[in-house]
Design brief:
This protein is mainly beta. The strands form two sheets. A five-stranded mixed β-sheet has the order 2-9-8-4-5, with no helix packed on it. The chain has a four-stranded antiparallel β-sheet with strand order 1-3-7-6, with no helix packed on it. The N and C termini lie far apart (53 Å). The model has no long low-confidence stretch (mean pLDDT 92).
Length: 137
């Protein structure tokens, strides 16, 4: 199998998800009450992105058989000084951010991390699957 250079450009890689208290977040999670909210902190790597380019970033919370919720839509411009391995204007960097999930019921959820170009064309997408249960009796 042969790979093109474009297979290695403008990619995102999910690294970790944690609570605001620094505890790593796992696939199976419990919160005190449903419906409820939880604030999380995410770390992502951006692989071979352009310097000074206005990328769009989106984060969605998806539930089976329901509509998805847009959690974040943001523009990210990477400065040259933050790029590692800068070759021909492309390099690697990391981003991190906080976000709040509003959970309506116990069950399966998916987080979609999406990198888009300035015309909103999808460049790359990463999924994380999570289960949220309630400690309520």
């Amino acid at each position: 199998m042969t790979f093109k250079q474009s297979d290695f450009q403008e990619k995102i890689k999910f690294q970790s998800l944690s609570t605001l208290y620094g505890s790593q977040f796992s696939t199976i999670n419990y919160i005190k009450n449903m419906p409820g909210k939880i604030t999380l902190h995410a770390y992502l790597d951006l692989f071979n992105v352009k310097e000074k380019y206005p990328y769009r970033f989106q984060l969605y919370l998806v539930r089976p058989n329901q509509y998805s919720d847009n959690i974040i839509t943001s523009t990210i411009t990477i400065e040259e000084s933050t790029l590692i391995g800068n070759i021909n204007g492309y390099g690697k960097t990391s981003i991190n951010f906080d976000f709040v999930l509003s959970l309506v019921q116990s069950g399966d959820y998916r987080l979609d991390f999406i990198l888009l170009d300035k015309e909103n064309n999808e460049l790359d997408k990463q999924y994380i699957y999570l289960f949220f249960g309630s400690d309520e009796k």
